[in-house]
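Regression check, PAD case 362:
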Amino acid sequence: MRAAVFVGVDEPLSVEKLTPTDPGPYDAVVRVGASGVCRSDLSLAHGHLPIPPPVILGHEGAGAVESVGSAVTRVQPGDRVIAAFVPACGRCFYCVRDRTHLCEHGMDGMMTAKATRDDGSALTAFSGLGTFADQMTVHESALVKVETDLPDEQLALIGCGVTTGVGAALNTARVEPGSIVAVIGCGGVGQSVIQGARIAGAARIIAVDPVELKRTAAVDFGATDLVDPADGDPVAQVQQLTGGRGADFGFEVLGRPETMNQAYAMTRRGGTTTIVGMPSWDAEVTFSAFGLFYDEKRLLGCVYGSAQVHRDFPRFVSLAENGRLDLGHMVSRRIALGEVNDAFRAMEAGEVIRSVITDPQR
Ligand code: PAD
Ligand code: ZN
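Current build output:
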């Protein structure tokens, strides 16, 4: 197999030929059809998560099941699947309470060797997936079968960015029809929050991003108002657009303490602020204690769009098939596996909504 491997903080990913470890009884081998390049992969490569190399990166992917272990019941060879970056075991405390995005087995896959190098050393895979590869060995609890004609490049996005963003709006924040929404950070995940807010029937969606290409794209995905932080304090700009009150729903989709404070500040009293961005593992954020009390805002964390993947992946597929969720325009660039480092550069340069590896063999 070929895979793109995190070998050290701030070093380029190394595209290597590896030997997959033998699948266990509950594993399926998946031929990866497409993999999106998400900011969380880049954050891991920058050392924002304390995960030791070598790690096969990639956690947003779709493909087809090639073979299954003897105990696998949930998928069969030939099935089209979207990989879930948090598995849904179906039996733990959280899964039985319909909170599968908090599944207690969420970290199991991260600890498992997925491949070896010629020297015998073992590699793990990000979220137990490792979608930056031409194949991956995945526990069946992290696979969702989908029946659709949508291309893999669109299904891959449902594996992380789309589910996180649309789910943040629909499941976590529960955006209400007619409400005012403000979204800070309009990359692949932020544009999905915008689409989720549009699907929920928000009256106004304010997109905040310093990059013009992102703001222009945001209009296509449903934004009604645009804020460029270069034009002045984004909190003041949002307040000006909302009669001085702020938005009913504020979203931070960047992962930085200062923009978390902005999202909170641009939410009106009694409104809901949702933190979607993944910060560095050791970052801290401070809020006014008096304000937490007096303004009665709801401050919510958000893992994986609070998604129940077996409910939500088919739901988002259906929305896309019926033209109500735009996945096609989320794919800015199609690349080969060997171009993944350039995709990281393009992400940091603000050139793309999503780069998608559509040729994992090359
Ligand atoms: P991205 O890099 O595509 O988007 C980030 C956006 O923020 C870009 O459009 C930037 O231009 C924009 N930006 C930069 N500075 C500012 C600023 N000062 N104000 C407003 N916007 C700014 O990343 P992404 O969309 O792939 O991911 C976004 C975050 O979501 C990131 O932190 C990622 O790790 C996180 C994430 N969280 C989950 C989850 O489960 N909560 C899942 C997937 C991704
Ligand atoms: Zn992601």
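Comparison notes: The mean pLDDT is 97. The first helix runs from residue 39 to 45. No diff flagged against the previous build.
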